[in-house]
Amino acid sequence: MSKRQLDDENDSMGESSDDESLTLGANGDANEIVEVDFVFTDPCEPNFHSVRQHLTHFLPAAKLDASNLANIIVGQVTVGTMVCSEGETDVFGLITALSLKRYAAEPSIQQIMSLVTTKCPEPTKPRFEQIMNNSNVGLVISRRMINLPYQLVPHLHSALQQDIDWGIENEASQELKDSFKFDYFLFLAGVQVEKAKKAPAGKKAKASAYSDPAIKTYDNFEDEFLEQEADVAFSFPVENVLKEGAGINTEISVFLIKRQKHNASLTSIAQMLNV
Question: pTM score, two decimals?
Answer without folding.
Answer: 0.84
